[in-house]
Automatic annotation (TrEMBL):
Lineage start: Bacteria, Bacillati, Actinomycetota, Actinomycetes, Micrococcales
Protein name per UniProt: HAD family phosphatase
One Pfam family named in its UniProt record: Hydrolase
Superkingdom in the source lineage: Bacteria
Length: 234
């Protein structure tokens, strides 16, 4: 007799709050901890408008969370501008916008600090190193973040798994024991491809990242109650 196929593993986040505890945690940055993702989308729109070009909503959605290189390649194809010139123009617009205070998203700092009090924490971002360092300085969490991985530190950025694999490696944890937090479809694809259990906290309208659990905010009370149950790393 042929046995019935076994049910798929529901994963460690199937119940909420979970009974599982991670050994390490990796947070995305833009759109999860700081409100730079919406500004970056606005910068792209300003750049396109300045060249009399536009992209459809599906393309805009697919670019959310992607590396600057990918965004530049896509937008310069629409404007006909040389990619290097497009990159310079886009980054000049972006850096100009970032001279204003970047908004910290609700619950971001409190959640990172609560997690870091229990297990090692890394930040994994598709931003270049200088922009990631600026964001972390603005957040004021450098004292509790063990390491950060930028798109400059790996062969391929998100949605490839490289950034999350490298972050877990630096934390000395197996990917299956490392919890990821993401906001975008691109980032969620990367974390899942790397094999990390994933909590999504979308901040950009239209983004529907596939995750093991989706929360409306990092201020979620059940999330913080669960974090307090984690065994402290030694």
């Amino acid at each position: 007799m042929t046995s019935a196929p076994s049910a798929p593993d529901p994963g460690p986040l199937a119940t909420w709050p979970p009974r599982w505890s991670p050994r390490a945690v990796v947070f995305d940055c833009d759109g999860l901890l700081v409100d730079t993702e919406s500004e970056w989308l606005a910068t792209q729109a300003r750049y396109l408008a300045g060249h009399g070009a536009r992209i459809d909503e599906e393309t805009r959605r697919s670019l959310t969370g992607r590396s600057i290189e990918t965004v530049v390649r896509t937008l310069s194809a629409e404007t006909g501008q040389d990619p290097y010139a497009a990159a310079d123009e886009l980054m000049a617009l972006h850096r100009e916008a970032l001279t204003d205070a970047v908004g910290v998203l609700p619950g971001a700092v409190e959640t990172v600090r609560a997690v870091a009090a229990r297990v090692p924490v890394a930040i994994a971002s598709n931003s270049p190193r200088d922009l990631l360092d600026d964001a972390l300085e603005g957040l004021g969490i450098g004292d509790v973040v063990l390491t950060s991985v930028s798109v400059d530190d790996v062969a391929e950025g998100k949605p490839a798994p490289d950034i999350y694999v490298e972050a877990a490696r630096r934390l000395g944890a197996d990917v299956a024991d490392t919890l990821a937090f993401e906001d975008s479809e691109t980032g969620a694809t990367a974390a899942r491809a790397a094999g990390l259990p994933l909590i999504a906290v979308p901040s950009i309208p239209g983004q529907q990242p596939v995750a093991d659990r989706t929360l409306a905010s990092l201020e979620d009370t059940d999330l913080h109650a669960w974090i307090r149950t984690w065994e402290r790393a030694r």
